[in-house]
Each structure stands twice: as structure tokens, then as C-alpha cells.
UniProtKB/TrEMBL annotation, chains A, B:
The lineage of its organism: Bacteria, Bacillati, Bacillota, Bacilli, Bacillales. This is D-lactate dehydrogenase (cytochrome). It is an enzyme of class 1 (oxidoreductase). It comes from the Bacteria. Keywords: FAD, Flavoprotein, Oxidoreductase, Transit peptide. One of its GO terms (molecular function) is FAD binding. Its EC number is 1.1.2.4. Residues 34-211 form the FAD-binding PCMH-type domain. It comes from Peribacillus glennii. One of its GO terms (biological process) is lactate catabolic process.
Length: 461, 461
């Protein structure tokens, strides 16, 4: 019935699927959260098709869950209430590039690596880089960031406009193509980070950056991760324009060396990057080296070669996958707190204690320039005792962050994994978020069950 | 009655006023829009008082219009429906500075100059600088910017969190103290730019920047403003990290020389600034000088002395006041379109033609690094023929911007002056803004009559 009716809309058997493998692929993200099959997966190729599918879903109160690369870490893409998984893989066109305006318009299924390959000939790039080769649609939906946020900001700062289909099938466009505007409410920022609960994106206008003339990377080794965290604080507080500053602990490096065949020293390390003109880079990296020495760095190694540098960041981006691949049949869990920079070293120190207390074999990595860090490890979700230890640990790390001016999620979003923490963190304003959700999606068809814990009586199902 | 009841809440005759001069001062902003007296002006000193006043207003459906420095340019502070003008002059405390986190918390009545004076001892500053010495509350409400936006962004990017009183008197806090977060909807950005229509701010958390080691300013002269606009395009497209890049035309300089007693050359000029370490500045300004020469600059003058530099930017910030002061009894009007950078020179050229066609004696200035420029002039609002010429001119300049991927307001906001243009520019998404407004302020007591044109039947009055 559902399948047949969607087939009438899409009119292509290849793009409406109830194949079990396909349903299974759309039942979960990358992590430990229990999956659930959608009733059907639809692969739209045009904005018109998205509108038609959403209108159909609205008329029949069928849940719609947007799906990109499936690399979400908090269960965002799980069709908790069944319904339609709307897969944007085929809407992966770069719509138009405006190099002279540092702008690009893309369909939501374009991935960040695909986009940067496309932009290279213009001397431009899109800086936001979560570990996975996520889609721009998914990245916008979770307000993703990554190693470049310290220099270029998160998705929120780099999305200038959106086209989105609302829960009733209305197609709206927000924002625009200018670098600034004070024309009405900032709806673009409202949709960015809304995790598919307010609208389904069909086109995204992104701000681009010029590829710097020169870039240099470096590794700074420390006796322990807390010392490395303190050094990151010093760098930030110096005001130097750092390009990237990433904490990796020996466990992470061990996992990456194993997974990627690299041979990085398995020591507490900061991976650093500095960009600019040749002179700026020479001066900048020397200044950073001095700072590192003052902060007790044991050794400072340059990575001048561009291939080696790419390898370094590829290694960093692979950390999560590498960590989870160590033991077979493990699923990833990752904490994601973020604190003000002056709280960072203490928060890392506290987290290490908690991790040890719960005997969890976690690797510690962090976008420490933003005060954001993750404990990464593999779990067997069927091992209830292990899961309980993980949840206890996560609770304590989040509680610490909330008590120290922090947030429960720096970049992964709420999904289903952080709903109870959001209730604590945003106790005073959550009702505004819920009111906006209820106004824009009164039947709760857009990604239901995410972001907000709802009372059963509130649910339409 | 209203006065008596508010006096019971505030309990201080000095801070509840129906004095005619005070009412008159709160009847309008800086510009040509027809004023209207509030019924009463209240000067709260605490958040609790704000909550109590709003609760009282909510219970009695009395309009509330937040008032800061009164420097708004689009009539935001005019109490169109009477009611309470809520003046934040006395809530002007810097609540706490966290220099190590580059953060400050302020009450909404703090002005930008007051804040920067306070921050200087920490080596920090708040970069957003509209011309007037506006309050941080007002700047957040209109998503203000100014000469530094090209380097540091607008208010949206520099406000990390807010405390706000909703239309029902609920006190909420949004955002936080971390540099990034993906915890729920981006409510801070929703409130920033909402022009007092969604909530009344009581505290604002701002991101600060380090005062650069070295700063240099320069003036580049051109044959005409279009050539200067083209040069600005080149600078932006080169990707160089320009600190400020401001277009001023001979009329502006003439007015400023007269008003400030300066003696700048009355030629089409770009005022420029570059900051960084000493080496960066030397290299950066040399590169910019070369770009300017390639773009046909007639002469390039450095302004190395910090006093002279301050004078230069003070002159630029005084442009609007200077222009309007030329003729007695004139009120300011200012256009405020913003276009993508590749459209800038053409838009300036078109605007000059329109200005001449309507025989308007306008000065042209612009934050051209953002594609944002203003035609400034004085009008006599009682001269209907002159007002008609202004409105025709403004209509044509805005229409051109909207047809060329631009926005009707780069930084001044909608207020009452841009409502009809907002309807055009955001035709597809205006109903979302209205729905949010209706959800959060169902009785329309917060700054009624602003941002949205409402049908009379929709109004509660």
C-alpha cells in the first residue's frame, strides 16, 4: 500500500525500495543505538519529488526520516516510528559555483570530499570536516564541525541559505547569497542543527574559503593528555590564528597505526596546523613551537610535505573507525562534551578518571581548540553490564561539563542519544524549541522521536 | 492607572516616567520615521523588574517596546501602539569578564564604547561597531554590524548566549559559554535580529577578540566610486585577510570635514585597515597596496599613527550624523542594501544613477567588503514631494538588489521602514517567521507593528 502509493509518485522501481538489505542499511547510523527498519526507502532525484513525497506523508501522517551518508553518531537516522527513509544519495549535484562570491549551492546528498574535489580547480574549499565523508545535508542538520572549526567555525557559520520542505509539503527558502543580512528572523540558523525535525533540505548555499597559499602541520608530544590539553589552552589564549589543534592520545594513535598502517609515535600528542602566506606560516609555526615548549612539550615535529600532512589528517579523521575496528563485532560509542577553553584541561583530567573508574578501554581525542573532546570506544550493545558502565561514564562526563559551563554535545547533535541531557542543559528554553516544533510540524511526522523526549500522550502513534 | 500600577512594581518615581520630554525622547529613533509617544517609560535596573513589568503588560495586553540608545535607523523603537517604552539605560553593567575564555556577559544597556573601554585592560575587544555608540541589546536585536564585520562577522556570530524575557514573562536562557554546541535548536540566533518582537533581552554573552599586536590604516583614492567598488571586489576576491574596507564618496568626506573639523581629501576613497603581528601587517598592507594599484588607485596613503587611525574611523562612524547636519532641521534617511561581492560595483553604479535621477543630494558610503552600502541624506519629512522622491529612489535601489541576489537590509534591520521589502525578499518563508511570532507572542505585545505588515483584523488593538 505505502510502497505502491510511493511508487506512483516516484514512478521508478529502482528508487522505491522495500528490499530487506536496503531497509537494514537505513535502520541505523554508525553507532551503538538500536536500529529499527523503515517501512520503505525512497531515493528522490529532484526537489519536486521530495515535495510530493512529503505531501503524501503529511496527508497520511507517515514519518519521514532524511538520510544522507548514515554517518550520524547519535541515532538521528533511525526510523523510530517506521515510515519513509528519504535517502538523498542521488541528489548529489553541485548546483552552481560562484567562485567570485565564495559561494556554492549544492544538493543535500553531496559529500564534503566530493564537494572539495569539485571546488579545487577554483582554488576554493569548504572547510567544515567531520571525520566521516558525511553529506552536506546531514552536516547542516546536525550543525556539524570537526578539525577546522577552530579557524572557520561550524556549519551554522558556513551555511548562508537553505531550501527546505516543511512538514506540510511547503517549499521554503531561507537566508540568501549575501554575506550578511538583517532581513527578518534568522531561519537558516534555526533549520541548521534541527536534525531533520523542522524541514527536509533540498538545497544548501555554502560560504567557501580560499585554499591558503601555504599550510604546515606539526606534531607536539607531551607526557600526558592533560598537559597536552593545557598546552591547547595556552595556544588559544595567545590569540594566534591556529588552523587546527587536535588532541590524540596513545590509544588513538595505536589504533590508527593498526588501521591505517602508519607509524606515528604512540604518545600523547597535539596535531597542529597553520595556514597563510609563506611568511605568515613560517612566523606562525615558530611562535606555536615556542608556546609548545613553554607548555612543556617534549618534542615538536614538522610535517611540511603536503602528502604527509594529508596523511596526518586522514589518520585523525579515521580515529573513530580505527578505535572500533580493534575488536571484532563492536559498535562505536563516543562522548562529545565541549567546555569553555579555560575548563578544558580539568575536564580532560576528570574524564580520564571516570573512564578508568568504569574500566573502559577508551581512546581520547579532541578538537581541543574549541574545548571539545571525545572518548571513543567499541561496545557490544548486547553486553548489558558493559553498556551500563558506558552509560554511567557518559552521564558523569556530561554532568561534569554541564556543571562547568559546558554543553552535552559540541558537534554530534542530540538525536536519541542526548535527549535526556538536553532536558538538563536547556531546561529553561526547551519549551520554546518544542513550541516551534509543534508549530511547524503539528503531526510530528518529521524525524519523530528525536531531540525531544515526548510524553506518550503527545505522540500521534 | 498604567503609571500608578507600574509605580507599584518599580517603586521608584525616578524610574517610571510620564514626563513629556522623556516620552518625546522615547517616541522615535534617529531617522525620518514619524514618532509616536509611549504611554509611559520605565527604566528597570534588574532582571526581576523586567520580568515583573512584562508579566504586568502580558496580563493587561499592553505593548512593550525595548529601548537602548535610540540609535535605530528603521523606526524599531517607535511605540506605534503606545504602551511601555522599556529603557535599558540603567541596566548597563558588565556582569562578568572571562578573559581566558574570550567571553563577557553584559546587561543590554552597555554600549559598545563603554564595553571596549572596560575590556582594554584585558587586551581584548568586542569588534562589532555600528556607527552609533549603540547598546549591545539593541545591536543584538537588529543583528547589527559595521566596519569590522568583514573580518569578525555580525552580531549573530558574536553573541554566544542570551537571557530573555518572553511575552508571557517567562525568563529563558539560550546558547551558552562554549564556542560551539549542537544542543537543540539555535535559539540564540533566532532571538538575535528579532528586533524586540520575540523577547526582551536581560543579559548577553559575547565572544571577544584579542586586540591585534599591530594595526595599520590606509586611504586609497579613486577617480569615482564605481572604480573604488571594483577595487573592493578585487581585495575580497584575493582572499587577503582585510580588517576593514570602507567606501566613502566626496560628499561624505566633505560633510565629515565640516562636522569633525578634519581635512581629508574630498575624493572617492577606500578607507582600509589591516591587523596582525608586525610582519603580517607589513606584508599584508604591501599586498593590498599592490592590489589597489592594479585596480587603478590614484594614490595610496598610510595612516600609521594610532591617533590618526582612531580619528579616521571616528570620521567614518560619524558619516551619517555629519551628512544630516549639513542642512538644518533635516532628519536622516539611509538605504542599506547588500549584494554578493561580484554584484557590488554594478549595484553602486546603478544606485548613483537612481540618486541622480531623483535629484537627491545623497552621500554614498559602504561596508563594501560585505557588499553592503548606504545612500545617506537629510530630508524634511513634511516635504511630501521630497519624501516621495526618497521613497521612489529607495524602492528602485532595493528592487535592484533583490533582482541581483541581494537583501533589502544588510545591517539596519526591518523595523517599520523595510516591512514591504521583507514581504518581497522572504515571500516563501515569511509565514514561518509569522508563525513563530504568533506562537511566542500570541497577543502581539512585544514591539507590535514591527517587522511584519499585519492585517488590521489580526491586530488586537
Amino acid at each position: 500500500m505505502l510502497y505502491q502509493e510511493l511508487l506512483e509518485i516516484i514512478n521508478d522501481r529502482e528508487r522505491v525500495s522495500i528490499n530487506e538489505t536496503v531497509l537494514e542499511q537505513h535502520s541505523k547510523g554508525l553507532t551503538y543505538h538500536t536500529g529499527k527498519l523503515p517501512d520503505v526507502v525512497v531515493f528522490p532525484t529532484t526537489e519536486e519529488e521530495v515535495v510530493e513525497v512529503v505531501k503524501y506523508a503529511a496527508a497520511n501522517k507517515i514519518p519521514i526520516v532524511p538520510f544522507g551518508a548514515g554517518s550520524s553518531l547519535e541515532g538521528h537516522v533511525i526510523p523510530l516510528k517506521g515510515g519513509i527513509s528519504l535517502d538523498f544519495t542521488l541528489m548529489n549535484k553541485v548546483v552552481s559555483v560562484h567562485p567570485e562570491d565564495f559561494l556554492v549551492k549544492v544538493q543535500p546528498g553531496v559529500t564534503r570530499k566530493q564537494l572539495n574535489l569539485h571546488l579545487k580547480k577554483h582554488g576554493l574549499f569548504f572547510p567544515v570536516d567531520p571525520g566521516a565523508d558525511a553529506t552536506i545535508g546531514g552536516m547542516a542538520a546536525t550543525n556539524a564541525s570537526g578539525t577546522s572549526a577552530v579557524a572557520y567555525g561550524t556549519m551554522k557559520r558556513n551555511v548562508l541559505g537553505l531550501r527546505a520542505v516543511l512538514a506540510n509539503g511547503d517549499l521554503v527558502s531561507t537566508g540568501g547569497e549575501t554575506i550578511k543580512s538583517s532581513a527578518g528572523y534568522n531561519l537558516t540558523e534555526l533549520f541548521v542543527g534541527s536534525e531533520g525535525t523542522l524541514g527536509v533540505f533540498t538545497e544548501i548555499t555554502l560560504k567557501l574559503s580560499g585554499i591558503p597559499e601555504e599550510t604546515i602541520a606539526a606534531k607536539a608530544y607531551f607526557t600526558d593528555v592533560v598537559a597536552a590539553g593545557s598546552a591547547a589552552e595556552m595556544v588559544l589564549q595567545s590569540g594566534v590564528r591556529i588552523g587546527k589543534i587536535e588532541l590524540v592520545d596513545p590509544k588513538t594513535i595505536e589504533a590508527v597505526n593498526h588501521y591505517k598502517g602508519t607509524s606515528y609515535q604512540e604518545r600523547p600528542t597535539l596535531f597542529l596546523e597553520y595556514s597563510g602566506s609563506k611568511e605568515e606560516v613560517d612566523n606562525g609555526i615558530t611562535f606555536i613551537e615556542q608556546l609548545m615548549e613553554e607548555a612543556g612539550c617534549l618534542e615538536f615535529e614538522y610535517e611540511r610535505d603536503s602528502l604527509k600532512r594529508a596523511q596526518l589528517w586522514d589518520a585523525r579523521h579515521s580515529a573513530a573507525i580505527a578505535v572500533v575496528s580493534i575488536r571484532p563485532n563492536q559498535l562505536l560509542v563516543s562522548t562529545d562534551v565541549c567546555v569553555p577553553i579555560s575548563e578544558l584541561a580539568k575536564a580532560i583530567s576528570y574524564s580520564r578518571e571516570v573512564i578508568e573508574k568504569y574500566r573502559i578501554d577508551a581512546a581520547l581525542v579532541g578538537h581541543v581548540g574549541d574545548g571539545n573532546f571525545h572518548a571513543l570506544f567499541g561496545v557490544n550493545p548486547n553486553d548489558l553490564e558493559e553498556m551500563e558502565r558506558f552509560h554511567n561514564m557518559n552521564n558523569e562526563i556530561v554532568d561534569y561539563a554541564l556543571q562547568h559551563r559546558g554543553t552535552c554535545t559540541g558537534e554530534h547533535g542530540i538525536g536519541i542519544g542526548k535527549m535526556k541531557f538536553l532536558e538538563k542543559e536547556k531546561a529553561s528554553s526547551l519549551h520554546i524549541m518544542k513550541a516551534i516544533k509543534a508549530t511547524l510540524d503539528p503531526d510530528n511526522i518529521l524525524n519523530p522521536g528525536k531531540v525531544f523526549i515526548r510524553n506518550e500522550v503527545e505522540e500521534y502513534l
